[in-house]
């Protein structure tokens, strides 16, 4: 009896130590630094152009008049401004397309560090455009900044998913969404008239981009590379062990090494899968469809429309034009708090309830907002209901749909498939972003306040699909997630494990033997790469 009690006590103590070790200093620092120089800048660049829009248009007009001797017509000015805003998404698409070979060659961490070259170059171009009298510099800076965002929104979730223990993988993955929200909020704060929201100071809004980039470039090189990348792609066991030790905060990482090696044996080899190969792989067909649906809904769910209507709704509520920028801060604050809340509860509630529940709540509040906006001139208190709906939609989005799609992409696919999967996810993300920017003005002009019913329909379709297809991935290994999808993919689990590389059939025993031998020696062999 005593032995049993002692054994139980030791088990509890070990579990307690394991839980404490999950959040090591290096793990937290890598996550914060990675997100601050990556997803933070994405969020910041989404909102930073709003406050100085009038001053930037005036700069465009003055530059045009100085060059050609006459003022630019309204249509051309609108076109130039639309290009300035939307070309960010084109740059993002380019970044998402080129990220696969970059993360394969340089690794996850080094990709994030090198990506700061784009951010610094973009910041210098945009901040010096007024001084140089060239609006082309601002537009070029926006597209380069988009490339930075496209790379970081794939490389960062990949890095976070590979350095985190599965017990906290969801919480750590939410750092991407949390820092996007913090970036949006920071852009709103710095754009206030008392700070940089003035005609002479707006270039500083773009120059501030250099600060997070330099911080990341200085700190991140001293932190380890992804241990999975080191072990499975570089076959360097000693470096992988050291990386695991620093990230997990413990000396004995043999269990983690064996867990990754077990995944490698299932893979048969570590050759990177191309996008075409991944799309042809039957064993991950529904995983790919689910990623496409979640990423598509992430951009098409109507949050951009909410930002479009915010100032108008606040004005209709009787708020002074001068006060609206300060009231708008409430949207950024709610967005950040909701994202933090999601990060705190995701490992308790799981991905599935937060994602489906978030889209479901957006459907409800979009419906109420449509009624409220349609009737707000007839009932004096309805504009306040509209404000509540706006804040509720933002909170519903950030609780689940705002961050979990990035987490799922990292969880659904094995090491060799992950870069191609993130390339697909990033492409869908940025194409959807561009489509919203291009089509929303026409949708809004044609349907007016009823445009929100379109977004409610998209959210409903997304929630319905996820309800029937998405399995819970909380605390599950890749093997368990594959097992959940196996029946829907119409393959046995054994076929699913063998079918990762169509057209390639090699002796599994020989591959495992060669792989283990090369990893133990820290060498790379041609037969395995």
UniProtKB/TrEMBL annotation:
<keyword id="KW-0812">Transmembrane</keyword>
<dbReference type="InterPro" id="IPR036259">
    <property type="entry name" value="MFS_trans_sf"/>
</dbReference>
<feature type="transmembrane region" description="Helical">
    <location>
        <begin position="139"/>
        <end position="160"/>
    </location>
</feature>
<feature type="transmembrane region" description="Helical">
    <location>
        <begin position="21"/>
        <end position="42"/>
    </location>
</feature>
<dbReference type="GO" id="GO:0005886">
    <property type="term" value="C:plasma membrane"/>
</dbReference>
<keyword id="KW-0813">Transport</keyword>
<dbReference type="GO" id="GO:0055056">
    <property type="term" value="F:D-glucose transmembrane transporter activity"/>
</dbReference>
<feature type="transmembrane region" description="Helical">
    <location>
        <begin position="420"/>
        <end position="441"/>
    </location>
</feature>
<feature type="transmembrane region" description="Helical">
    <location>
        <begin position="112"/>
        <end position="133"/>
    </location>
</feature>
<feature type="transmembrane region" description="Helical">
    <location>
        <begin position="447"/>
        <end position="470"/>
    </location>
</feature>
<dbReference type="Pfam" id="PF00083">
    <property type="entry name" value="Sugar_tr"/>
</dbReference>
<feature type="transmembrane region" description="Helical">
    <location>
        <begin position="324"/>
        <end position="346"/>
    </location>
</feature>
<feature type="compositionally biased region" description="Basic and acidic residues">
    <location>
        <begin position="520"/>
        <end position="529"/>
    </location>
</feature>
<feature type="transmembrane region" description="Helical">
    <location>
        <begin position="381"/>
        <end position="408"/>
    </location>
</feature>
<dbReference type="InterPro" id="IPR005829">
    <property type="entry name" value="Sugar_transporter_CS"/>
</dbReference>
<dbReference type="InterPro" id="IPR003663">
    <property type="entry name" value="Sugar/inositol_transpt"/>
</dbReference>
<feature type="domain" description="Major facilitator superfamily (MFS) profile">
    <location>
        <begin position="31"/>
        <end position="474"/>
    </location>
</feature>
<keyword id="KW-1133">Transmembrane helix</keyword>
<protein>
    <submittedName>
        <fullName>GTR9 protein</fullName>
    </submittedName>
</protein>
<feature type="transmembrane region" description="Helical">
    <location>
        <begin position="202"/>
        <end position="223"/>
    </location>
</feature>
<feature type="transmembrane region" description="Helical">
    <location>
        <begin position="79"/>
        <end position="100"/>
    </location>
</feature>
<keyword id="KW-0472">Membrane</keyword>
<feature type="transmembrane region" description="Helical">
    <location>
        <begin position="172"/>
        <end position="190"/>
    </location>
</feature>
<comment type="similarity">
    <text>Belongs to the major facilitator superfamily. Sugar transporter (TC 2.A.1.1) family.</text>
</comment>
<dbReference type="InterPro" id="IPR005828">
    <property type="entry name" value="MFS_sugar_transport-like"/>
</dbReference>
<feature type="transmembrane region" description="Helical">
    <location>
        <begin position="353"/>
        <end position="375"/>
    </location>
</feature>
<feature type="compositionally biased region" description="Polar residues">
    <location>
        <begin position="510"/>
        <end position="519"/>
    </location>
</feature>
<dbReference type="InterPro" id="IPR045263">
    <property type="entry name" value="GLUT"/>
</dbReference>
<feature type="region of interest" description="Disordered">
    <location>
        <begin position="501"/>
        <end position="529"/>
    </location>
</feature>
<dbReference type="InterPro" id="IPR020846">
    <property type="entry name" value="MFS_dom"/>
</dbReference>
<dbReference type="GO" id="GO:0046323">
    <property type="term" value="P:D-glucose import"/>
</dbReference>
<feature type="transmembrane region" description="Helical">
    <location>
        <begin position="288"/>
        <end position="309"/>
    </location>
</feature>
<dbReference type="GO" id="GO:0070837">
    <property type="term" value="P:dehydroascorbic acid transport"/>
</dbReference>
